[in-house]
Amino acid sequence: MMRNLEGIIISGVGGLYSVRSDGGEIFPCRAKGAFRRRGLSPLVGDRVSVRPPEAGGKEYFIEEIFERKNSLIRPPMANLETLFVTFAPKNPEPSTLYLDKLLSIAVFNHITPVVVITKADISEELAEAYAGIYRKAGFPVFISSSENGSGVQALKEYIVSLKGICAFAGASGVGKSTLMNALFPSLALDTGVLSEKIARGKHTTRSVTLYPMTELMEGVAPDAYVADTPGFSMLDFIEFDFYTVEDLPHCFPEFEPYLSACRYTDCSHTKESASDCAIAAAVANGEIARERHESYLSIYADLIGKRPWKKK
Ligand SMILES: Nc1nc2c(ncn2[C@@H]2O[C@H](COP(=O)(O)OP(=O)(O)O)[C@@H](O)[C@H]2O)c(=O)[nH]1
Ligand SMILES: [Mg+2]
Ligand SMILES: [Zn+2]
User: Is the pTM of this model over 0.85?
Assistant: First the structure.
């Protein structure tokens, strides 16, 4: 009998998965029916154990899914380690609410959020202003332009040091594919408005694919992957339900030091005065960016509306 092999699911469509072994071989696999019965389904990003075919057979089966660090429903993937939250200073105009939703989902799921500002050539000034908001919140921030190449090398150096799976999220048209092509030229992703429209028409748009970074860059960790994901779209966030209202304050890392300093232990940090709420005070004196608190208020309203015992 052959020993099981281990690897990472790098793609999965219609119940057929591709598992990449640590040695870099790709195996087409099916999942055992036992997973379905337990309500568990393998996800791209899962580390799995695979049973090779019996003598005479040819089917590989995913037999075990190893413990996940995290899993996301939209996009469907597991074990995301780093999320690059990408936006341009304009063209398209960023929505800080959308960005803060992405950042908070990352924090909640123990994913390292990294802010990447693209198209800095359009407005250095605006790029710096946005960078200020996110640096104050404590996130790593990179400012880049694929047009003139500025900042791309610094981001590349950061990416080379990564372990595990990373992904780029952000609104369409901000320059994600262009930037990924600058970072990983052999990826050769389609860019521009037309490519988006063509991609949307395809059935494959909901699936996630992982690319081994060892095949894209020199000097990266053997377990480093970059995900090409169609998820994290604005549409995914209309009905915001990624965590509960109790989790919300902890999804804004810069709020943490103030949370125990509010007058009332059940403070919602929404409409309390600065004399009662340490968050409100920190916003008033500029220690917390006002834009971040505005996003907090908006997400709070979304999540409160979700409570079953509250009539809308
Ligand atoms: N001025 C400027 N335009 C850019 C930059 N990066 C991308 N673009 C343009 O922005 C458009 C959208 O880029 P794309 O990479 O397809 O965006 P995606 O939808 O986020 O993948 C394309 O027309 C690019 O040429 C940049 O750094 N500066
Ligand atoms: Mg794109
Ligand atoms: Zn408070």
Answer: yes
